[in-house]
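Example record

One chain of 461 residues, shown exactly as stored in the release files.
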Amino acid sequence: MKKIISFVVLFLLVFSFCSCSQQTEEEFLLDFSAPNGEYSGVDLDGYECTILQEYDLERPFQYPVGTLMADMYLQRLKDISTELNCNVTLHKTNGTETARIIAGLYVGEISCTHSPHGNAASGMYYPLDVLIDFLDYTNADKFGTPGLLEQGMYMGVPYTVSPVSWPGKQMAYSYNIFAVNEDIISRYGKTDPREYVENGEWTWETFENVLPDYQIEDGEFTATAMNLTWYIIDFAMMNGADYIKVNSDGTVVPALDSPEITETFDWCSDLFAKHKDIISFLGHYEMVDAFNNGTLTLAQTSFSHMINEMIFEAKNYGVVSMPWGPSGTYGEYPNAYSGFDSMAIWVNAKEPEAAATVLDRMFEPFEGYETIEDIQEYASGIFYDKRDVELFTTYLKYSRWNYYTFGVFDYFRTATTLTKSNKSGTEIAAKHADASNIYVEKYVIPNYEFIKQYEAEHSEN
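Predicted structure tokens for this chain:
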């Protein structure tokens, strides 16, 4: 199976959640012996920088120990310690950090997490806006777009950054793609859906018309055309949906009942009813089994789940985005994710400015992987087709957090259930939008004000 094994191990379990219940804090001491680098003029005077990560220490920042990326990450920490005259140690969290901070106890300098929003909202992290002279989080190539900052943002203040230039950190839990069983496509002479994308035809209308062609019934063999594994929020995003609306006078209001969203609900309701015999709604693990067994043509999933769970058994696979709705922008891939690897500074860090300096140095591209072409070459070890590589390294810049811990996502969860029962978009919005729009008002709009300012400043450059 293509040259995937050495590549896959670098991504294995990249986004799995880890238990934080251990009571004994582990420590991974580093041997600092690397030569000075470009930060050699900065002297942190022996600063002790403790990093607490949620993941097992066998997966430093979710790179499995012994892989190239794990080695490069650990070497980066060594280099930082030598160059900046500090001492970086890597620890695992033990689940008591919040209680200890509340009790006024010190826990560490930097937090490494996949789900930062709870800690950001509860005041466990240091606000990055006051540290921008040390850590310029507006550098999207280095730390992620506003949509990636969004998961660690609270009331318009960013608290986390992500190393988006590092190989393997292009994956979020965003379910805006279909894994494609290319064996079925080639064996039965079906049009590869990626061809529709290239021809500018991968729209709702095309999708609805061609979906029956992906249903295979060949004697004893049957392959279901499509599985909706998760939720329909990404269909809405691909139809130009947003959580908010900006009025002509500049005011910002919640918009979960927008035409783009209700239109999506109507389309999904019609699609599920019209094609009920060729669409399944298997849960994640059942979907993985069906796809790997070759009995599913299109499976809604995420890149992270594909790489972690679906490529070991599938012999020939591809990737295609969800189709564009009539109100979407063709060629862009808006999506809603639930989590992404990131780092923050603990609110009671002893030296937050020094911690910010360490993060700024840490998140520079790895040597040999400075360009998008380098990342694409690296990713070509897992995908059979360059179109898949391009999508993998492109979609992240359109990502938005789904606010699943703040009530907003529940609206789309409910809508997914109701569209399966053929409820209309108007009916769903009338009954459920107002309650969720309250959360948009409270949590999303303050963050939008930051995003608006960010985009305005960058459009001037």
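Notes: The mean pLDDT is 89.
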